[in-house]
Write a structure and sequence with these properties.
Number of helices: 14
Structural class: alpha/beta
Number of strands: 13
Strand content: 5-15%
Largest sheet: 5 strands, parallel
Helix content: 40-55%
Order of helices and strands: HHEEHEHEEHEHHHHHHEHEHEEEEHE
Strand order of the largest sheet: 7-6-5-2-12
Distance between the termini: 30 Å
Radius of gyration: 20 Å
Amino acid sequence: MKERIINVLAAFETGNIGKSFPLDYCLPLYHSVSDKELPHLKHVIRYKTTQQFEDDLDHMASNFQFVNWQEFKDYIAGSFKPSKKIALLTFDDGFREFYDIAAPILERKGIYACNFINPAFIDNKEMMFRCKASLVADAAEKIKTIDPEIYFILSLKNMDRRVLQKKILSINYQEKDILDQLGEKLEVDFKAYSKQYQPYLSTDQLKELTRKGFGISSHSWDHPKYGDLSLKEQMATTNRTFGYLKENGFLYESFAFPFTDFEVKKDFFDELYKNEEIYCSFGCAGIKLDSVKRNFQRIPMEMGESGAQILKKETAYFRLKSLMNKNTIVRK
């Protein structure tokens, strides 16, 4: 019902979305861009093709002024006066396609982007558990006969492949070791896959991207959901990542939450901003305000729709929430 209402309201969002956009800044979020099937992503991210990505960029460029990191900071500080509302392009997770596909497109168009990375996965030393889940779900879809023990490991009585895939894809950070068991049963060799396909960026690629002017910043050490961690655990993975960024000469002034900042309490932000080098942080709740003024919400752009439609729907939804005073995230 909610989706239907939003679609109806979005239909009334016509003309220049930049003018009707409810905030002065737009923060689009992507993970990868590819024209190929990526088994480690296909079940967890609806990444866009190169043409879809370029169409999104062209639409945003006609409605917003793309800015780099320094311009974004200066704008928030009130010392940068753009010709129209601004857009800061962001990517998460440090996938190789950013180097191979997205960066050349962005260079050609003169657009800056910041990629928030997990150091644990750089140089393909390890693979994020969600990517492992995608590979395991893919194997479960294709294998002729599934070992009944796989259902036993997952405590499933219903031996239906669709139920099995859904269960695999619901495995969380705390349960991630189960994926190694399932990989072994389904003959998915994560290390061999990483070696062959190199899904993540290398240190050399990160440094070259930095030389070219792109931002490389913090997304936690290995992508846990912060709402599931204690404050001590939250700060440990955050500080470890900042140490890595400083050591390698990357951008250590910002932090983007992996998954979401849902259920992250005020005490984390109080602790985070004791580090005076941190300028701001980013969530991904769409167009929303935040009671923590230095925490900005980004717009997920990989939702199976065009960027133009996503921005219309986000704008419509923000207006709807405004009527109920529910467009600000309140931290306690």
